[in-house]
Structures are given as C-alpha cells and as structure tokens.
Amino acid sequence: xxxxxxxxxxxxxxxxxxxxxxxxxxxxxxxxxxxxxxxxxxxxxxxxxxxxxxxxxxxxxxxxxxxxxxxxxxxxxxxxxxxxxxxxxxxxxxxxxxxxxxxxxxxxxxxxxxxxxxxxxxxxxxxxxxxxxxxxxxxxxxxxxxxxxxxxxxxxxxxxxxxxxxxxxxxxxxxxxxxxxxxxxxxxxxxxxxxxxxxxxxxxxxxxxxx
Length: 211
Fold this sequence. Notes:
Blueprint: H1 3-18, H2 30-33, H3 65-74, H4 119-122, H5 146-149, H6 159-162, E1 181-185, E2 190-194, H7 196-201, H8 207-210
Antiparallel strand pairs: 1-2
C-alpha cells in the first residue's frame, strides 16, 4: 500500500469523527492531556511537562501555573512547546498575569486561577465546552465576540452589551453538572448563586445559628 493510499484511508476513518468535534481538543481523549499514573505535573496530572522555556515578555520570566501547561502544546518548538496551533505572547492578549491593573480590566474573580489571569481565564479547554474556540462565553460562533470582551472591559463595549447578563462556561466545577450551583456574571459584578434545587436542599439556620 502506497503512502498516498494509506493517507486517504486514514482520512476516511477520521472524517466521521471530525463532524462531532467542536475544536482541536475534541480529537483527544482525557488521557491525551492527563496522565492518570504517568503524570508529568502532579497538580493537574498533566501528561506533558510544563513549558519552562517560553518567557513572559512583561515579566521576563518563564510562565507558571496552568499557562505553562497550555504552552507545552501551544508554544513553538523553539519556545519549549509542540507547535500545536502556537500562540505568541508578543501578538496575543496578555496572559500569565498575577497583577491586574483595574484601570485596564475589571476581571471577575471567578475567571482568575489562584488570583492570576491564565489561559483558562478566557478558555475552558475541555471537550464539554461547545463555545467558539472554547471561550468561557457563548459568542454565537464568534459573531457576537463583544459578549466575551465585555466581561472584563465593559467601559469599552457597546452599551447594549453591558446590560446583558452573561453565562460563562466552567467545567472546573463538577457541582454544575448536578445542578447544585449555577454561576452567573454581569458586567458590574460576578456572583455565585445556589440553584433552586440546592436552595431547597440547604437546611435553614436556626435563630441561634444566625448570630
């Protein structure tokens, strides 16, 4: 079998799967990113080593946290990554920021990871997220990208967008799947509210407990 025939045969096998994919991560199983017993990073049992070569142009230091794990795939090989849809810090929205200037961005606390603005502040990379480019907010396949930007930059967005209540995706909280908690965000504040089912199940405090 020639290489061309083998390539075409492989495409035929993969084509049906591509119809279900919302993004590149959907072609991976859980073990594509996580190593249950062979993890390179114990914090999130990541299957590859964190990228310690890519340098944050703002701090002149290598990235840390979840961002360093994302870059292990999404940085160029010369920057310590695998070159999979590589992201350049010099031409991208800032990421890997521990000190956020409130004059520039009003970032909801729920979007921060350990107080820092990481890749997952904008993207939720799990395949359960069907949003455009794994964004934390539904932007109608990118047509309403302002719905996403307004979460942190309400003063710069159209007034109509600032009055809308946005729901953001969060696969990091398993309680959401069971309907125990619902997360909602407005452009003014980020709030966490118990879902009706959780509110009914929650025991009422006695007068002595309220004191």
